[in-house]
Amino acid sequence: METRAPYVLIGSFVLAAIIAVFGFVYWLNNTGGIGPRTNYHVQFQGPVPGLLVGAGVLFNGIRVGEVTQLGLAPDNPRFVNATVSVASATPVRADTRVGLDFQGLTGVPVVTLEGGMIVAKSGEPLTLIAEAGAGQSMTQAARDALRRVDTVLEDNSGPLKDTIANLKTFSDGLARNTGKIDGILAGLEKMTGGGTPAQKITYDLRAPQNLGPAGKTFSSSLAIPEPTAVAMLQTQRMLFSPVGDNPGFADFLWADSIPKLVQARLIDSFENYDIAHAPLRTTDLGQVDYQLLIDIRRFRIATEGETRVEIALSARIVDKNGKVVASRLVEASEKLDKVEPAAAVAAFDAAFARIAKELIGWTVQAV
């Protein structure tokens, strides 16, 4: 009995160890890390370079199983049949898309599963068909594209040579006729109004000089803000009424926009009358006693009936409390014998001189 006791203990230990191994395997396949699995058949319609048994299976980027079997399709050697084993909880559907992806620097292939909505009928073996070209790597795709390009070039080598020869002939012709082409382009620019733009000619409005001695000077501070005017008068161009084509004034420009030009020349006129008490722009002073507000109504050449220059200003004198002290409409016109820039500017100078003298006398009396 003493001799047989050790053998009984050893046998019991070995039996317990075998039972423990079988228990661990059962736990691992059912309740452990692997869990229940479902097998699916996958068919690739082309080569699957580098795919091996044991390669991973990803569903929407998450590893859910591995490849358990690979083989060529017996009815079509271009196709590859594979069996994948994935976790039973994976939502594989009849329309799940199958592809082959290459991961890492070494390009290890894995089977990819994506999406799907159609549930397979119960009991039917589910076979997933991979997308055409799913096993094609980027390198293979580049090789195929270059091969197709090479085929196209080879098939059209003759026409390509003729096209290159024609381009060379055309470029040689252009080189021989460069001077003629430049002349043609210059003529087209002149015909369409292109080329170097014509130089604009600037004209100024003159303030009256001979206003006589200042009989009465300004005892209060006065400012002349920039006159107001409609948008049409906010320009440096010569204005006509009615509007028409006046080619002689195509290059004409006043020295500034009409409101700013009138403001500057009115201030010059007041300075020529009494430089010691002349008004300034509103921005040049703080609080002033009075402001001479000007609204420009007309500043144009009228061509209806007798051609003439017309200037019309509406003037108001406002004290520092905003009260209108006096108001007046000042108008002047000057006959224009010849519609040309120099004659027109001279007529504007004469009409503006009369308006400036009238405004100065009226303003002196009002303030």
TrEMBL record:
Ranges where the Mce/MlaD domain occurs: 40-116
InterPro entries on file: ABC_trans_aux (IPR005586), Mce/MlaD (IPR003399)
SUPFAM superfamilies in the cross-refs: XCC0632-like (SSF159594)
Pfam families the record matches: ABC_trans_aux (PF03886), MlaD (PF02470)
Entry keyword set: Membrane, Transmembrane, Transmembrane helix
Gene3D superfamilies linked to this entry: ABC-type transport auxiliary lipoprotein component
Transmembrane region(s): 7-28
Sequence ranges assigned to domain ABC-type transport auxiliary lipoprotein component in this UniProt record: 203-358
Protein name: Phospholipid/cholesterol/gamma-HCH transport system substrate-binding protein
